[in-house]
Fold Alkanesulfonate monooxygenase.
Amino acid sequence: MNAARQLHLGAFMRPVSLHTGAWRYPGAYPDANFSFARLKSFALKLEAAKFDAFFMADHLAVLNMPIEALRRSHTVTSFEPFTLLSALAAVTERIGLVATASTTFDQPYHVARRFASLDHISAGRAGWNIVTTSNPDAARNFGLDEHVEHGERYARAREFFDVVTGLWDSFADDAFIRDAESGIFFDPERLHVLDHTGPELKVRGPLNIARPPQGWPVIVQAGQSEPGRQLAAETAEVVFCSPRDLSAGKALYADIKGRLAAVGRAPDSLKILPAAFVVIGDTVEEARARRLRLDSLVHYDSAIASLSIALGHDASGFDPDAPLPPIPETNDSKTGRAQVLKLAEEERLTVRQLAQRYGGYAGLAFVGTVDTVADEMAAWLEEKGSDGFNVVFPYLPQGLDDVAERLVPELQRRGLFRTDYAGQTLRDHLGLSRPKNRFFE
Amino acid sequence: MNAARQLHLGAFMRPVSLHTGAWRYPGAYPDANFSFARLKSFALKLEAAKFDAFFMADHLAVLNMPIEALRRSHTVTSFEPFTLLSALAAVTERIGLVATASTTFDQPYHVARRFASLDHISAGRAGWNIVTTSNPDAARNFGLDEHVEHGERYARAREFFDVVTGLWDSFADDAFIRDAESGIFFDPERLHVLDHTGPELKVRGPLNIARPPQGWPVIVQAGQSEPGRQLAAETAEVVFCSPRDLSAGKALYADIKGRLAAVGRAPDSLKILPAAFVVIGDTVEEARARRLRLDSLVHYDSAIASLSIALGHDASGFDPDAPLPPIPETNDSKTGRAQVLKLAEEERLTVRQLAQRYGGYAGLAFVGTVDTVADEMAAWLEEKGSDGFNVVFPYLPQGLDDVAERLVPELQRRGLFRTDYAGQTLRDHLGLSRPKNRFFE
């Protein structure tokens, strides 16, 4: 079995799940946002299942939502990614640790240092999810009244990336001699002062930390806009994306992989890992029932707004327990409306259930038995829809246990997933090479 | 024995010691700046010895020094404090974890979040060493050509403290209901939006993390200037300082404690813990010989500049192996010159040895047997020179083992130090009360 044909699996984590009703699901831990012990148990299970990475979602603000939604949301509090992943680094051995850090609201010297330090502490398991932070509420927590404009955010992100990677390359790998006899700790000839001056950033350097064990922590990118795709093609080694189905996944995969040649990169130097919400049951019907039960825990008052947005039409006057009434098509909302209608028909959902789906989690989902989900994942890999997935667990711990203890063994049986880690670093797991130092041989 | 009369002990750490020659000392770990395993072993030993806290020193730049000194310096690389202390939180149970964070080169939302997260991860063991960062090389790593002026740094620090503590108070302690049945996760009436607009900072809030277990992580301050002392009296719960002897320590102690009443604070609400370099031997002579051996590992070329600075006189032309020649007194350097002359006479040091002392570690030192060092520490406590010490280990691991396994048992035998932790949090260890939430009862 060619290792390149195997899936890569990340766990896209919030402590209680991304699904807003998850903290109410039977067996869930409503205190997981406060409990490192819970997070440690999740990381250990994911490592036992040989996941590539634990990927920590993040926001730089309490999300702006109506009070009825906000007071029902477990997302108002969570751990900060660097502190959480560093703590997890100390109690795990092999799993990768991907932290989100914003190029809009942080400083490259801080970001370079924290990732380098995490990479040293974890012996080469760090990854940086580069985000430009599109949430306008975040801007107001960092001294700005209005959000930074999209184009400017991406220009800064590109330069920020150059500065951070340049700082990581401050020392050659062989700079540290540490010869106690002669007293020479390192060779200053093997130290580079970056002295960067650009349109957005001015950073002298050098970094006051040795080059990370991985050379650079793995670069992860999540943007799907045009500048986001281009930034990914130029800089990313993992793309985290959200195509709604295999057809959209194949188009995105072909587009991003197609951009690599133009910037002189090999197709394998970038892995595309869509988010996938995975619900497992003993039967397909049981899995669907579990999902409906989970969705039913989303409060209708906070969910109906999400449906209205998806439809491009105010749904608040509809009968919640009836099927979706006919809705006039407008130019604004063609795609969204078509998706809702398709979902309503396929799953025969009421207005309430549709609202709860959009208020809970409405992205790509694999809902079925270990067999049907393994079939779907295999099809994505085979048909070049992705190189694996960032799994979103519907509820924790049960949803994670279902994947780690039931789905993963089936994927391993089929030769679609590793049975053990072959290497030590996150780059090893992902089959990514160690970047050359741009300043030193 | 009244608990209030016991010493508090912090460990002021850099991975290889603050002393620049320490990485060359017999048995030292020259790789400690790269090895989490070493740091973990230090933290576990300090916790077994019941230390109050592990205190991580920090710099935001490679220090500017002549190449001959730089290439011999182990300080060019180190761990970043948040990542290191979070990792240590996961492998320890009780010891406090104090991180340095700069108010000049960071954002209050980030700082508030990281400390709150560390406090949650460690179950109430975080402390914030507030620094304004006086190193001009740091400014150049954060987009500035010149360093921020002293007064402006302190004005920003004061406002920064108000914002960070205000963000920590975003949620009342009882805000999180987490009632799965009703679906109410928290009570928005128990959430405060800070909406701070001041001369230096504009931060909306709320913080997206629950109030820290300690209410606020313990506030540590290190400045000894006039604005530094005033900031400490207004905000600090621990003062980290460097008086050169007991007489200077008593004056500083009386000054800072004396300022507390004017701001409505009790004397016990602030602990003064000077840095103390502790070298233990079986005899006083052995301890002194160890220190001379350690100093001898500092390279003369890089040490002589430090002696010139201390003297206020160029010492580079002196015979290194002769006693200090007579030096004319100038107005600029009265105190420094007097100190060097006193040291030269007391310990009968050559120019080389004096240079190596100033190039290594020239602050307050207790050098002797466990008995003589315990006597000195007891005198400081008795005579109100301090409430304990931040111990600087001359070399690691031996210097730490000497304190943890030999000095601490003697202090415990005398009733001067705890034999076990009485509480769980760093506030418990230090005898500090939990701050009230300024927005909620």
User: Anything to note?
Assistant: Chain B has two domains: 3-281+369-430, 285-359. The first strand of chain B starts at residue 8 and ends at 13.
